[in-house]
């Protein structure tokens, strides 16, 4: 049986995480996987999450099944958090999913049923798992221009030129905010132009919203998705609570579908539930119940928002400190874009050779495309990282 198989490629993010863990050098710097870490290098449980969890332990009376769509209160709260009031709720359906990746998988599988011959368009570059997931769902994958590593900014005119040529046979995967891996994002005005082109060409938006609250704020980060919601009749969105609630291993996400009317939304929802039942039957409840409790309880929600805001502002402070440290050592503004980027990541634009050198000589771990996780950078490491980057890029 297994003679037919050859070794599958390793996921580079998790491979790097294992390599870092095995490195015995003191003072090693982990800028790899997208996990928030405090100054001590820990990823603590948020206090609002801990309180919600304690409440569940104290009050839960059963572990019986919840249902194929999962925790309905959770999904309703996630729809509100992501879409605001941009879409009338009678056109929206949602299912809890195992993480943002699980939500993406559910939606891609659903879209394959709806439009098997569509092409999925992904930004160049994108999260390394996007293209494999779309291919695994059976789609052809193409890339649209997105990032200019020379300037650290979005190639917006090139992007527009590609978007002009889309048709209703295209599915366009958009990062809702905090672009992964580049950190370069569309401005509200740019989102408006993108949405106008999606509307004009009939291309179908699939929005991946994995970092709401990590960029410019919870509401600000939803600008693009809500612009899609106001203007476009049918679309889907995958949201994740891994980062903004810090519940990574609990696998909490939500698959959201928007139909042209309630009757269509019901049909699409029935297909989505059929996909889920045929795959993992139903999602695990614990993490979703934590998030539901927080979003529905005023005091817990306020506490969570304050913690999220502290993480967000720390990431921006890290960005400014790193850009400044590099500038003062290199006497150049080459990396100033790091301070302008938003979210966990920035793509530094270093060669694979330089990235390898930094790992071998300085125990600095970043993805091979030179993506760094700014949220993993303890204050005392910033100066050392700046030294290493400036020396290695000379
Ligand atoms: C990342 O890009 O590092 C995170 O989204 C974690 C993951 O699942 O890849």
From TrEMBL:
<keyword id="KW-0663">Pyridoxal phosphate</keyword>
<keyword id="KW-0032">Aminotransferase</keyword>
<protein>
    <recommendedName>
        <fullName>Aminotransferase</fullName>
        <ecNumber>2.6.1.-</ecNumber>
    </recommendedName>
</protein>
<keyword id="KW-0808">Transferase</keyword>
<dbReference type="GO" id="GO:0030170">
    <property type="term" value="F:pyridoxal phosphate binding"/>
</dbReference>
<dbReference type="InterPro" id="IPR015424">
    <property type="entry name" value="PyrdxlP-dep_Trfase"/>
</dbReference>
<dbReference type="GO" id="GO:0033585">
    <property type="term" value="P:L-phenylalanine biosynthetic process from chorismate via phenylpyruvate"/>
</dbReference>
<dbReference type="InterPro" id="IPR015421">
    <property type="entry name" value="PyrdxlP-dep_Trfase_major"/>
</dbReference>
<dbReference type="InterPro" id="IPR004839">
    <property type="entry name" value="Aminotransferase_I/II_large"/>
</dbReference>
<dbReference type="GO" id="GO:0005829">
    <property type="term" value="C:cytosol"/>
</dbReference>
<dbReference type="InterPro" id="IPR000796">
    <property type="entry name" value="Asp_trans"/>
</dbReference>
<comment type="subunit">
    <text>Homodimer.</text>
</comment>
<feature type="domain" description="Aminotransferase class I/classII large">
    <location>
        <begin position="28"/>
        <end position="389"/>
    </location>
</feature>
<dbReference type="GO" id="GO:0004069">
    <property type="term" value="F:L-aspartate:2-oxoglutarate aminotransferase activity"/>
</dbReference>
<dbReference type="InterPro" id="IPR004838">
    <property type="entry name" value="NHTrfase_class1_PyrdxlP-BS"/>
</dbReference>
<comment type="similarity">
    <text>Belongs to the class-I pyridoxal-phosphate-dependent aminotransferase family.</text>
</comment>
<dbReference type="Pfam" id="PF00155">
    <property type="entry name" value="Aminotran_1_2"/>
</dbReference>
<dbReference type="GO" id="GO:0004838">
    <property type="term" value="F:L-tyrosine-2-oxoglutarate transaminase activity"/>
</dbReference>
<dbReference type="InterPro" id="IPR015422">
    <property type="entry name" value="PyrdxlP-dep_Trfase_small"/>
</dbReference>
<dbReference type="GO" id="GO:0042802">
    <property type="term" value="F:identical protein binding"/>
</dbReference>
